Amino acid sequence: MQGETIVALSTPPGESGIAVIRLSGREAARVLDRLSSGVTEWQTHHIRRTNIIDTDGELIDEAMAVLMKGPDSYTGEDVVEIYSHGGLQVVSEIIGAALALGAVTAEPGEFTKRAFMNGKLDLAQAEAVADLIGAETKLQRQVALEHLEGGLSRAVRGIEERIAELLALVEVSIDFSEEEIPTYDREEALRLIASMRSELRRLAESEIVGAKLRRGIRVTILGERNAGKSSLYNALLGEERAIVSPVPGTTRDLLSERLHIGGFTYHLEDTAGIAETGCEIESKGISIGRTAAGRADMVLFVMDGSEGITGGAAEELERLRGRRVLCVLNKRDLGLAVSEEEAARRLGTDRVLSVSALRGDGLDRLREWLYSESIAKRSGEIGRERLAVNARQADALRRADEALGRLDEAMRADAPAELLSVELRAAASECGSVTGRSVTSDLLDTIFQRFCIGK
After folding, report:
1. CA-to-CA distance for 125 and 151, rounded, in angstroms?
2. What is the pLDDT of residues 152-167, one digit of tens each?
3. Distance between CA 16 and CA 61 in Å, rounded?
4. pLDDT tens-digit series, residues 373-423
5. Which of 48, 146, 157, 431 is a Cys-bridge partner for 151, taking CB atoms 3.0 to 4.6 Å apart?
6. Mean pLDDT of the chain
7. C-alpha to C-alpha distance for 396 and 431, rounded to whole angstroms
């Protein structure tokens, strides 16, 4: 509940040099007074060394602590942060003592939710906090930080302001419909609507690359036994994560690791070699691999280029019809039995590339292909403006565009001003849901549940 004082560990659980325990709420300062020994007066935003004691006065730890009086704090409430040693028992006892003094355990994202409710952040900025915490690459960090600093919010509010201006003119025409008072110029209004729709569509379309930036791109390595799939997997990762052996069927399970290319995260999967087998375990591994390929964004189908193209390879590629597949001729260090051009002709595809996983030959071309096929066509815009909306935001922006589309049609048909007002209000409401100006409590709960506890 908003009125309660909440407490949580804000650093990851487990042993560490330092742990950060955070409290927020109107009783936070009182709890700090009761927990600390040796400090008689807490000055806001001044960090102090203190002894942390339990409710019986027993020393728990020597720590540093700071009180940040609201509204000049992250949540807008009184906030306390205690920097203790990161032992499991130390943290448990400090939080236990805070709970005994009346604090309650924070829900996931509750600190940031309170910051939103208290007007410290809008909803787009609050969502950016979670993105920033989860950022694995520089580009992911840059995009999240741009949203946190209000880049998306400013763009959406700019559209909202123009909607509000047009709405005011339309509603003036309702109030003074019997009088000769100029309200708005229809042709100018239609140009404004077209401009706003263009901006809304551009923002909504950034969700395509935004989803890949946040979710990552799944790439499955598939192929026949001993084609060098695991060697390629290790070579792309730059470390030995899969066991490589000349013994057929070494890989039985699905292996997955992250690979970063151009600021995006690729979830690279290694699978069992495809073959006719009577082994139940190996057969299960092959089935798992095919299932993984079926849900992947891209498939690297690996063949032993030194032996050429087998009938089994062509048959397996037929299974993958409709998927985004690159045929990889591995082991070119042994000499290719078939050229890239001939392989492309025989396999009926122009997506063929030769590599040597052993020597690293062709791996840069392979990385470039992965990036160009999944991202490059849309990455320029995100690189320039650092704006990439999420699915929730994109849905709201598309609904705002649809409302303005209906407005355009109504205005061209000389519809009553009352109808124009309805569509303008609908568009404004959808824009407002991006920043949180118009949003339901259930949606807020859903959004903040994806945050970690302590943030």
Report:
1. 9
2. 999 999 999 999 999 9
3. 14
4. 887 555 555 555 678 899 999 999 999 999 999 999 999 999 998 999 999
5. 146
6. 88
7. 7
Cβ neighbour number for residue 143 with a 10 Å cutoff: 29
Q: Which two tokens mark 179? A: 């009088």
Contact 430, 400 (CB under 8 A): yes
C-alpha span between 295 and 299 (Å, rounded): 10
The answer to whether 304 touches 226, Cβ cutoff 8 Å, is yes
Q: Three-class SS of residue 42?
A: coil
For the chain, the residue count is 455
Residue with tokens 């139940």: 280
Which two structure tokens, joined as six digits, stand for 420? 């124009």
Q: What radius of gyration, in Å, describes the C-alpha atoms of the chain?
A: 29
- For residues 382-419, one letter each, b for 16 or more C-beta atoms within 10 angstroms of the residue's C-beta and e for the rest, the string is beebbbbbbebbbbbbbbbbbbbebbbebbeeeeebee
Phi, psi of 303 (to 5 degrees): -125, 155
Q: Can you tell me the distance from the alpha carbon of 107 to that of 94, in angstroms, rounded to the nearest whole number?
A: 18
Closest CA to 258 of 238, 273, 280: 238
Dist. CA 355–CA 353, nearest whole Å: 7
352-354: strand order across its sheet:
255-261, 264-270, 217-223, 298-304, 325-330, 352-354
Structure token digits, residue 436: 């949180």
Q: CA-to-CA distance for 397 and 161, rounded, in angstroms?
A: 15
